[in-house]
Amino acid sequence: METAHKFEESELRSILEKLADADSTEYGIILRAKGMVPDASGSWHEFDLTPGEYEIRNSSPDYTGRLCVIGSGLKEHEVAELFGI
């Protein structure tokens, strides 16, 4: 997915905590997620996620935010809403 939505790091952390919860199937079974999204301050955040853990790093600017969520039985609409898309 692509998004122009700007994410504060705390907001992105909250989203990733929900997706990384290995006991939850609210969004399907999440196997991996990664992406690069802009911050309201003009910086960018790159993230990687596997069940139970995630990492957020500062990144170089890109033309638009992008994210990819891989899993089984994904609830795509709910994932999109979680990211504000």
Tell me the layout of helices and strands.
Blueprint: E1 2-3, H1 9-20, E2 29-38, E3 44-50, E4 53-59, E5 65-72, H2 76-82
Antiparallel strand pairs: 1-5, 2-3, 2-5, 3-4
How would you describe this protein?
With 85 residues, the chain is an alpha+beta fold. It has a single domain (2-82), classed as CobW-like, C-terminal domain (Hypothetical Protein Yjia, Chain: A,domain 2). The chain has two helices and five strands; from the N terminus they run βαββββα. The chain has helices spanning 9-20, 76-82, and strands at residues 2-3, 29-38, 44-50, 53-59, 65-72. The protein has a five-stranded antiparallel sheet with strand order 1-5-2-3-4, covered by helices on one side. The N and C termini lie close together (9 Å).
Outline:
The protein has 2 helices and 5 strands, in the order βαββββα.
Q: Any key phrases for this structure?
A:
85 residues, alpha+beta, Hypothetical Protein Yjia, Chain: A,domain 2, 5-stranded antiparallel sheet, 2 helices
Provide mean pLDDT, rounded.
91
Calculate the terminal CA-CA distance, rounded to whole Å: 9 Å
Write out the strand line-up for the largest beta sheet, numbering strands in chain order.
1-5-2-3-4
Helix count, DSSP H or I runs of 4 or more residues = 2
Rg: 12 Å
In which range does the helix fraction lie? Answer: 10-25%
CATH C-level: Alpha Beta
